[in-house]
Write the structure tokens for this entry.
Amino acid sequence: MRSKRFKKLPTNTSKLKANDFENVLKEIKKNCTTKFDESIDLNMQINHKQKKSEINLRTIVNLPSGSGKKIKVAVVCEDGKVQEAKNAGADIAGGDDFIDKIKNGELSFDKLLCTPSMMIKLSKLGKILGPKGLMPNPKLGSVTENIKKAIQDAKSGQAELKNDKDGNIGLSIGKKSFADDKLLKNYNAVLDTLEKEKSNNTVKGDLIKNIFITSSMGVSYKLKLPKSI
């Protein structure tokens, strides 16, 4: 059942001609008629010419304007580095004792970081952390000796770019309350990251076929790609 609010929104917007980000964003914000600060979300489709099984896109984009989300960061590290992690802004930090809590199902965090020497112990919890997308990964900067920087990056605004088995990539680039120029900076950061990933993968032609934008409780619009990605 669609609510009265939703029925008042424009229909068949996804069939409209692709438009520039700045123009579409104005319509997206008009459609944010809920009482809360809706997220502005992107959904991308990998080009059908690519064999989706051969595309394994997984990377991090640092959003220059932040994500608008409060991220609870946890750190698994040596006992001697626990206080350092907490001083750097970690919400939770610990060593073997913290690993035991995770093993028992205590997953009260959004992002998990780990030092390289502790990763051997943490890797045994793949069945617990993997399905939740919480397992630290060196390629994503979440397994590192520079815990302070990793915490700052996670807190300041990061988003993961990862395609599913059907070739879809989804992420949030901020909130309705963000100024238009801040959302544009985040959007461009996503495009720049995709462009770099394209060169790192064996891609024939364009990597991305379509990009759609919507608010968390709104309707979607097709975006015009400003560059070949």
Summary: The radius of gyration is 19 Å. The longest helix spans residues 180-200. The domain at 73-156 is CATH 3.40.50.790 (Rossmann fold).
